[in-house]
């Protein structure tokens, strides 16, 4: 049989006759493609056998070379199917071309529902099992049922091993009559055959999910699909398997024409078109790979800003599966937030500037930073702030030896101060051996409104606030347990500091403190602390009953932020009853939101039993803070709307945010203003 191709390498599948459509009859697909191996591309494509469609396994009949080639094909398909361009192609073609075949899933549903369902199943997390031989024609599979959770499976035909010998050869001059079998050449330029082969795989997956084209020839397909006598219907144009397969082929083919596919800084990325039939390009990560990503809210849709895979390099830092993303801040003063990462090897400060990932600092264990000998095994980064007022963030680091404040200095770090344990900072003896060395840094903030951050610290002795002076720390507050701040009797044994913020809008930070007795907000006054408010348990704050005995006193302060854009911070709080936002009014708190479990915020059904607040930030740039919430079901970004919350976006686990597959095990490591722009973004990590 003569092979037939169009210019983008999309397959035209010749069909056998006498095929009948039944729910589980095997379809034979004569998939006329010749697959290409390109050695330059091959070296950049990962060998990880994990796939967007779950785990990819190959049968014993696949050689190591064929397994690797299947991995490459799957990577191209996974990247293509994760793009917005794919969604746009599916929407256009399903709307304009799709004419349902008898037996197709959602036969009586609206076009919009069918579009959503086929995109969803194209991104299924099912496993895929591939046989390299035994298929009829070029590939074959069977008809299954939509939503099946068992493996997708298909068999390549006999051509698969035969074409392997042609891979890497020059492209045939078809106009001159050259052919691979006689002229030692291949059919088409890169990215063919990846474009075509990936389309075939997803074509087969559509069959496994219940979509059919009736038969492998036009005459029988017309009858079996319900279009007998209709000359306008064609099974290779109007059916879902062809539409999905062709969209994937189109995205890869168009990307090859418009983009430099392999011009990305990661080994598991391709540069693809951002819109169907467009010319703008973006590097897209293979969604199957573990690694790190920055997620953002774009037009109220959670998507990826950028993703990097494990084992990719950011300068001299190799991304590892056990990296610890410990803190974030603007460490080089460029108005873009960076993040600190540590590993068993050392420490890095890395950033994404909206275009590329860049290293700021990469240093191994044993490096000396102005007298501080860094060792990730016992050093702890315990706070970030601008302690010297130079406009860039520094960080506090501790060890069994002492305490330091480190700052970026070129491509390394230098020490603003380092001091050993038992050192006196004015009236505060740091990590004093007489107190069994139990100092805890509780928070960072500008507590005295001097445009520099200070350290809020407690010990078994008492509470203090330390500020940087010259090359040491100095206590502006140091008070022992038993000191009364207004009516609050401080005791570090049972007092807990729950958050720092400017609750009264006076320009300096305060802090929330709780105990078994109640709740308070304390602020610096001279060389001591005073109370902005204190209230006992069971007090009603408008509609919120604090730490109510009827709820077994399980209120949890989940975050601090300016949730209503009034230039003052509020308290995000949950209990076994529900969720609330409390603001300071006069000498008490007042609930501006108080909603019980079971309340729906948009389509998010709130329940404190399994909902977890993961962080606070302004994700849509409207000037008020929102918060990230997760559950076993998925992730949401909620914001205040009147006296309730609304959802800016929610997504279930297992779906894509750009090329990031959401998973309940994802580590939401940091929330900050990563990349360019004012909006907060999520630094997320996939370890397992």
UniProtKB/TrEMBL annotation:
The keyword Zinc-finger does not apply. Transmembrane segments: none annotated. Pfam families: FG-GAP. Keywords: Signal. This is ABC-type uncharacterized transport system, permease component. InterPro entries: FG-GAP (IPR013517), Integrin_alpha_N (IPR028994). Coiled coil: none annotated. Gene3D superfamilies: Integrin alpha, N-terminal. It comes from Aequorivita sublithincola (strain DSM 14238 / LMG 21431 / ACAM 643 / 9-3). It comes from the Bacteria. The keyword Nucleotide-binding does not apply.
